[in-house]
Design brief:
- The longest helix is centred in the last third of the chain and has 18 residues.
- The radius of gyration is 20 Å and the shape is globular.
- It is α/β, with parallel strands linked by helices and 334 residues long.
- It has 2 domains: 137 residues, 3-Layer(aba) Sandwich (Rossmann fold), CATH 3.40.50.720; 182 residues, Dihydrodipicolinate Reductase, domain 2, CATH 3.30.360.
- It is built from 9 helices and 13 strands.
- A 7-stranded mixed β-sheet has the order 3-4-2-1-5-6-7, sandwiched between helices. The protein has a 6-stranded mixed β-sheet with strand order 9-8-10-13-12-11.
Length: 334
């Protein structure tokens, strides 16, 4: 039996951090002391864990020598500020916020072998929700399909932007339903009952940071550095649950029966039968698998596979992946 570990969660009062604490309890992770850390504004709050309320402490005053494993779930700036302190204290680090450079991105269903080459204290990244969901689906299909190009439209929930995104969508919805004037605050325009054609700012070539990040992460997770990937991220008025329309252009004709058989036996996937399709709200939210449906070939291209997928971005697309990484890490490194 694995010995209990003293664990710190940075960003414990955010959507991702709270979900991470919940999953640590659900999966009976071997937690010794649990240190919940956040900014000074959030310090003093309490988060429930194993029947007790654990008080949130200020991260700036924390002694990282008290922890063996640290989850960073508070965004890239916080990770960059405090990860060196955690590393110097000998902590294992799992970054959920794209704050660390030159560390491996890991999805246990796609590239667990990466962890075998790490030495303690290791530093590992849990990639974006979109990369996690797509890697879970595409990794078991890679040899079978031999993808030449992948086109993705990612419909992202506002919770990916934190509590501010959720609060803004709720406020805008209430204002419109009560026939009050709408004043966008967090988003630059109306989000409620609307779809925004990009997520965040774009660069000089018109690509968003999340779009470039997804391309880089997916190539790494699939071990295909030259794979051509096209991504469009759009913001949709959904609180939780990311959804994806995907086209895979393959080296040879696609046998749908073989694809279905592979997906049915792959871990982390729930395939929806033909004639039906999954939705974020009706299926994915609160669940720990990636849902896949609408599997079909191209209208006039036998080498094309199209599908629809959806995932709970806070659970399977975020916190659960990080906890799964930790479960593998502690087997070999602790």
């Amino acid at each position: 039996m694995t010995q209990p570990l003293d664990i710190a969660v940075i960003g414990a009062t955010g959507t991702l951090g709270e979900t991470l604490v919940q999953i640590l309890e659900e999966r009976d992770f071997p937690v010794g002391n649990l240190y919940l850390l956040a900014s000074s504004e959030s310090a003093g709050h309490a988060v429930a864990f194993r029947g007790k309320n654990v008080r949130v402490r200020e991260v700036d005053a924390f002694d990282f020598a008290k922890a063996r494993l640290v989850f960073f779930a508070a965004g890239p700036a916080i990770t960059r500020s405090y990860a060196p302190r955690a590393a110097n204290a000998g902590c294992l680090i799992i970054d959920l916020g794209a704050g660390l450079d030159a560390v491996p991105n890991v999805v246990p269903e796609a590239n667990p072998q990466v962890l075998a080459g790490l030495k303690s204290p290791a530093q590992v990244a849990s990639p974006s929700s979109a990369a996690i969901a797509l890697a879970v689906i595409l990794a078991p299909l890679k040899q079978q399909l031999q993808p030449q190009r992948i086109d993705v439209t990612a419909c992202l929930a506002v919770s990916a932007l934190g509590r501010e995104g959720v609060s803004e969508l709720a406020r805008q919805t209430a204002e419109l339903l009560n026939v009050r004037p709408l004043e966008p605050r967090f988003f630059d325009r109306q989000m409620a009952f609307n779809v925004l054609a990009q997520v965040g700012k774009s660069d000089d070539q018109g690509h968003g940071l999340l779009e470039r990040r997804l391309v880089t992460e997916l190539r790494e997770l699939l071990g295909t550095p030259l794979l051509k990937i096209s991504v469009t991220c759009i913001q949709v008025p959904v609180f939780f649950g990311d959804s994806f329309s995907v086209s895979v252009h393959c080296a040879a004709a696609v046998a749908l029966a073989g694809v279905e058989k592979t997906l049915d036996t792959a871990p982390g996937i729930e395939r929806v039968e033909a004639g039906d399709y999954p939705t974020a709200v009706g299926d994915a939210v609160g669940q720990d698998v990636v849902y896949v449906g609408r599997l079909r070939g191209g209208i006039d291209d036998g080498n094309q596979l199209n599908f629809w997928a959806t995932v709970d971005n806070a659970r399977k697309g975020g916190a659960l992946n990080a906890v799964q990484i930790a479960e593998l890490l502690i087997k070999d490194l602790v």
